Amino acid sequence: MKSIFTTVLALMLGLTLKAQPWSYNFGSQKGVFNATAVSTSSKSNLLKPESGGVARFRYIDSIGYGEYVQNAGGSALRINGSAIGAGTKFSIYDFPGTNVLDLSFKLRFESGTSGNFFIGIGNHMAEGSFFSNNSNVNQEKDKVFTGFRFDLKASPINHSVRYLEGTSYLGVNAKLNPVLALENGKDYQVQILCNNSSNTTTYKKNGSSYTIEPQKYHVWINGTQILKAATDGNFGAYQASSKEVVLNAFGLFFNNAKDKAAVIVDDFIYSNKLP
User: What is the CATH number of the domain that holds 124?
Assistant: First the structure.
């Protein structure tokens, strides 16, 4: 009887540890990333994701690097954007995926008036693709589903938001989205809900239901939905090659920061099911 109870308890604990949504934060870690790091290395100061898979930080140089910063809740990751096209990158990949993904995290624009901060969600098909390499997105080879980007600008102009469909970056209409008055020194909660299936799908938020069209995604910032056009919050897939692929990876890519721009990220929550 004792052995049966122990087995059942162990199974329950295992399910609890792997229950969704998964969370990833930086605990109370300290230090500076002066080299590329992966959570699978015994020498890495990156924590392992509870979802399984790999966490990775891509170091560029003395400008494009990462470091842990302390706050009331523990540690967060400061990403210092690189000044060149090859960007600093933080990613989590190879977790169990489906055709949908719900990702949210905390973001603070700490400093800087230049740089492109890109959020990519997609499929990590092999080592050496976007989520595990040292490069920007390869239009022909990588399978990146979302192409959502914050472009840092000089004060008092607010940072702008752009999205990539196909080969062109398009600006998000700030007049339709007053919440996009994004500034340095403020905290933002970013949420991206993806539907990479061939059918529409729905999710619930704030007591209401929302429908995502096939191969589209929705974006929310500080609890407000970002609109692509009036009454339309469906942003299209970045790459045609990503159609209906399993979404098992996300990455934050920061480049072209000419004035040592930095962002702080923390408290990632993600799930292969929509709420």
Answer: 2.60.120.200
Q: How many domains does the chain have?
A: 1
How far apart CA 189 and CA 221 sit, in angstroms, is: 6
Percentages of the chain per state (helix, strand, coil), in multiples of 5: 10, 45, 45
Q: What is the mean pLDDT of residues 76-98?
A: 94
pTM of the model: 0.90
Establish if 166 belongs to a structural domain. Answer: yes
C-alpha 126/C-alpha 267 separation (Å) is 26
Higher-confidence residue of 17 and 21: namely 21
Q: 149-190 pLDDT, tens per residue?
A: 999 988 656 788 999 887 778 999 989 999 888 999 999 999
Among residues 94, 194, 35, which one has the least CA distance to residue 203?
194
| Residue range of the domain that includes 158 | 20-271
Burial class of residue 106 in the structure, from the number of CB atoms within 10 Å of its CB (0-12 exposed, 13-18 middle, 19+ buried): middle
